[in-house]
Amino acid sequence: MTICVTGHSNPDTDSVTSAIAYAALLNAQGQEAKACMQIAVDKLNPESTTVLKRFGLKAPETMMDVAGMKVALVDFSDIGQAPANIASAEVVAIVDHHKIGDITTNQPILFRAEPVGCTGTVLNKMFKDAGVAIPKDIAGGMLAAILSDTVNFKSPTCTPDDKAAVAELKKVAGVEDTESLFMDMLRAKSSIDGISMKDLVFRDYKDFDMNGKKMGIGQLELAAIDQVAAIRADLVKALQEVKNEGRHSVLFMLTDVVKEGTELLVISDEPALIEAAYGGKIENGCMWVPGMMSRKKQTVPPLQKACGC
Ligand code: MG
Ligand code: MG
Ligand code: MG
Question: In DSSP terms, which residues pair with 289 in a beta bridge?
């Protein structure tokens, strides 16, 4: 049975390109595998779409339900981020760089997770370990994923391994200037032209259960916060609607990649809890958190702690 390789729901560039890369590695090792993603091609986020186009990569096949299938997971290991019916699928491998999630298996599997900035970095090592050359187009996708996940090395999640992987992959991909590749991706990512506010909220968004409190955290990375000035009121309205769908809080990170900090838009039943988590004051529904770049490392853990998790 063909192994369906998929990243998390609401796929980002790492989830998309890692599915492509790991399927290619499995193929090179004689296993039938195909890259999949949990979204329709025309709904894929603009950054990933730009990356696929730039390197001439085919978009993974849309796969929302994996009942009865063999699956390999990249960039996540949480049931909440998996395709429908993951419980009736056979998970045969997991390659990740997040905390270990709640997916369990009945058989021993290949499980490779490392505390690095990107799944692409882990996969680069796996290609080397296997003695398989990375095709040029796929190297480009992996390179882009590392720049995206590490915010061009500025995120605290970035490690020396990520920088080493970029140095290797840029040669294979024939990319000389990773700065301009990153800025092209950032422009695509922060483009808000013609997008509905709800789509913008959910473009890079995750829900978390924190001690029974449902917390939604979205992020938009920008070259400057004033890029959203014109749509700010509409964005807040959309966040309020998302909050009203049964969430305790919705936080939206407007991350200034150049200034290296985040303006946190907050809609919450307990604003004091959010203020305690980040040690600041919410004014007009928002607070500036200097240095905050990473949801995983800097936004989620303090909030979990404040919730007593
Ligand atoms: Mg991801
Ligand atoms: Mg990732
Ligand atoms: Mg990300």
Answer: 262
Cα 305 to Cα 187, 211, 273, distances in angstroms: 34, 10, 10
Query: Using CA atoms, how far apart are residues 254 and 274, in angstroms rounded to an integer?
Result: 16
pLDDT tens, residue by residue, 197-208:
999 999 889 999
Do 133 and 92 reside in the same domain of the chain?
A: yes
Alpha carbon of 143 to ligand 1 centroid (Å): 14
**CATH number (domain holding residue 231):** 3.10.310.20
> Is the same domain home to 262 and 286?
yes
Give per-residue pLDDT as tens, 194-240: 889 999 999 889 999 999 999 999 999 998 898 899 999 999 999 99
CA distance 42 to 170: 28
Q: What is the pTM of this model?
A: 0.82
CA distances from 167 to 35, 121, 247 (A): 25, 11, 42
Q: Sign (positive/negative) of CA torsion 71, 74, 77, 81? A: negative
The percentage of the chain sitting over the pLDDT mark of 90, rounded to a whole number, equals 92
Q: In percent, how much of the chain has pLDDT > 70?
A: 100
Number of domains in the chain: 2
205/115 same-domain check:
no
Task: Please answer whether residues 303 and 215 qualify as being in contact, where contact means their C-beta atoms are separated by less than 8 angstroms.
Answer: yes
Mean pLDDT of 249-277: 96
Q: Domain range holding 275? A: 197-306
- Ligand 2 ion: nearby residues, β-carbon < 5 Å: 14, 75, 119, 149
For residue 299, the ligand closest to its alpha carbon is 3
- Looking at the domain assignment, is residue 192 inside a domain? no
State in Å: Cα 167 to ligand 3 middle.
21
Expressed in angstroms and rounded, the spacing between residue 75 Cα and the centre of ligand 2 is 5
